[in-house]
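This protein record is not my work; I was only asked to verify it. Would you go through it and say whether the fold makes sense for this chain? Here is the record exactly as it was handed to me.
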Amino acid sequence: MNLSKSLEDYLECIYLIMLEHDVVRLKTVAKEMKVSAPSALGAVNNLKKEGLVRHKKYYNIELTEKGEEFAKEIFLKHAVIYRFLNEILGLDSEKADKEACQLEHHLSDETTDRFVKFVRYLKSCPQCQSRGFKSFHKYYNDTLADQNKTKQSTKTDSLSNFDIGSFGVIKKITGAPEIRKQIIAKGILPKTEVQLIDISKDEATLKFQEFNINLSAFLCEYIIVEKII
């Protein structure tokens, strides 16, 4: 069945309320979905047209057999993705739930089935339980820490202010059009790595893509580089 993401969310919401309270009222659906009662009623009427719910004015909402089966499928996708994101990838519960809500609408039945089996396999594997998850979480946290250190140790400045021997990545080329043309004509472009080999009052030598390039020292003022310290 091809339902919109919004209607799938409503159907799943009705299913979860039914599991918890048995009785599903329109105002409860509106509250859970954080919408007005008229908006919730419009969605329920659309689900009714699809044969997924039964509802009369002033009466409770009921899932049809077809609606309950489809709601279970949606909930299963959500639960499997949530477990994978939370228990295996280590996302916090709130973020894992939010991400699962986004992903559940785009997985095919085959992909969902593979997710289910993969999660069950990992959870039933003693070696994965004792080493795999914790090792991955440690690896991720260590990598994140290294990335943060790298970000903290970067410095952006004109190439003329760098120390001889320093490496960096060109962020941008500034100056008047004539100046930029002179620099670009040397093959010096943004997002490429450069090393300052030597610089004097008149001339600078750069190592750029394994080649040494000489250019006027004053042009280095207009080459903005991010240096990794």
About this structure: Residues 126-152 form the longest helix (27 residues). The chain has two domains: 5-122, 155-228.
